[in-house]
Amino acid sequence: MEWQQLEYFHTVARVEHFTRAAELLSVSQSALSRSISKLEEELGVKLFERKGRGVVLNRYGKEFYAKTSRSLQELAQAKQEMIDLLDPERGTVSLAFLKSLGASFVPNLVSAFLGSCPRVHFQLFQNATSVMLDQLEAGDIDFCLSTVTETRASIEWQPLWTEDIFAFVPVGHELGNRRQVSLQELADSRVIALKQGYGTRTVMDRLYDQAGITPKIMFEGEEVVTLMGFVRAKLGITLLPDIKGVDMEGIVRLPVDEPECRRTIGLAWNKNSYLSPVANRFRQFLTEYSGGLTLAE
Where is the HTH lysR-type domain (predicted)? Predict the structure, then answer.
């Protein structure tokens, strides 16, 4: 049994189609089919069943896939470690981050890092906190930059900074001329919120629970710009950090004095996964970079 056979098998299993798998592997479909047939002959069992124009794993294939996944992952990691030893300043850093950090912080961070490490390539993703932590556990990314709201056994968190969360209300709101408000005073206002799974939504839910209030959710969205649009249209209020670059026309930002409204942003990684030298260098750089910023940045 050869490593290439396992790679071919796993690709077909993932895409469930021989033609698409052959295209991904840059081999002919006949060569791919011969490799899978040879593997099945060595194992003495069929691994796939036909399903329409595609294929799916049968019970033997599922068992073999599960048993060989770790081996392939370890082989890929070993190969990457050898490459990293030859050139520790070249490589890829995969980073997932909150959408609220995408307007200013992450672009400036990446630009600053590439100024000192120009041969590094970035893979960037934006997702909800829960999705990013799933990506970390699966080994799909190196780091997650998010609100520190959830702990998992395999995840290591490094808090970076803490920032205020404000109430954003439409111009003309009855409390819009106040210097600050309490959450209790906003209890009757309809709420425009991020969807469940986003770290800032988790913080908001905890703040309302702490104040003994059941929020009147009017709309749940995924984009800060959308939430602000609903606030601007006088459809409700929202709780968010101060996000640079967001159009504030028709909106008033109010500090919340009770309860204390803050969120902590941290860097997370899978403590069981391999981090390349350049990924470790990026982690150190991010720690120093974020430590030198003011909240306005």
Answer: 1-58
